[in-house]
Specification:
This protein is mainly α. Helix content is 32%, strand content 0%. It has one domain.
Length: 75
Amino acid sequence: MAHKMTTTVRLDREDVAALVRARKDGHDASKLIRRGLRIVAARYYAGRRPPATGLFVSTDNKLGDEAELFGDLER
């Protein structure tokens, strides 16, 4: 198993509320945060295929890159 680093993430209240609801539905908060990081930071991974969200599969190659899905969240 790969070594995991521990870090602190500061969340806004609305993000905390969303994580609480996700946990009630049986999702692990750490997994959700790691998955979100991989999606948003996909272009920065070296030698790895960008991760997929698994939300849908499309054969239309004009849809764009999943890493751009959350670009508008930058403040």
